[in-house]
Amino acid sequence: MKKSVRKAVIAGNWKMNNARPQTKALIEELKPLVKDAACDVVVCVPFTNLETAVELCKGSNIKVGAQNCHWAKSGAFTAEISADMLTEMGVEYVIIGHSERRQYFGETNVTVNQRVRAALDAGLKVILCVGELLEEREQGITEEICGLQTKIALAGVSKDELKNIIIAYEPVWAIGTGKTATADQADEVNGYIRSVVEKLYGHEAAEGLTIQYGGSMNAGNCDELLAKEHVDGGLIGGASLKAKDFSVIVAAASK
Ligand code: 13P
Description:
- The protein is α/β, with parallel strands linked by helices.
- Helix content is 42%, strand content 15%.
- The chain has helices spanning 20-34, 50-57, 83-89, 99-104, 109-121, 134-138, 142-153, 183-201, 203-208, 222-226, 243-253; strands at residues 9-13, 40-44, 62-66, 93-96, 125-130, 165-169, 210-214, 233-236.
- Strands 1-2-3-4-5-6-7-8 form an 8-stranded parallel barrel, surrounded by 5 helices.
- Helix 1 runs parallel beside helix 11.
- The chain starts with 8 loop residues before the first strand and ends with a helix.
- The site of 1,3-dihydroxyacetonephosphate has 14 residues, from strand 8.
């Protein structure tokens, strides 16, 4: 299977940005700009905007995602949101294991795996984030870190369930820093992650897996990144907050 037959997915991770008025304005601006996309288009908005986003995206080609979910179905977990609560709302995607969750909120490979399991059980599509810190790249252990994160996150995930997984390679040093991994660096690590998945699930499953790149991807550098064999889309932070910039990235992935 070649890149050309893999599904390209461009997802915006809005992070903790945009209250309801800005959410409405951004989605309304985005809808006509991405309506002819040949890739999948997703916006991952704060929990408080999910209902608004789902409503606004109805009848359009934009899908809505959340930025996390808890592993339990329900219970005494103050402030957490379950995967079932998301699907009940019409949410289709969820980001799991973002480096900001790992860095600032104590997320571990084990809890990432538990959240992945819960999301799949609820019928959500998962955007699973992996990526190394700058010191880890400098120590030459990028592959070990990304391989470990991938393997642990996918523990207990069947080959059939892998169809609902997208992996996003996001080098932590490239997030929000303006420092993009070069297209070759992104391709190399994405290719490595694919080889890890191949060992776990076989050639065909690995070849069919969408692996995004994320980290300062923008309207100016998206063409080069998305042209690479193993870069099947992007998880976009800052540039997803501007409809024009995001739509340029969507257009680049639609080529
Ligand atoms: P930036 O595009 O702002 O670097 O963020 C990337 C990211 O973390 C997406 O999840």
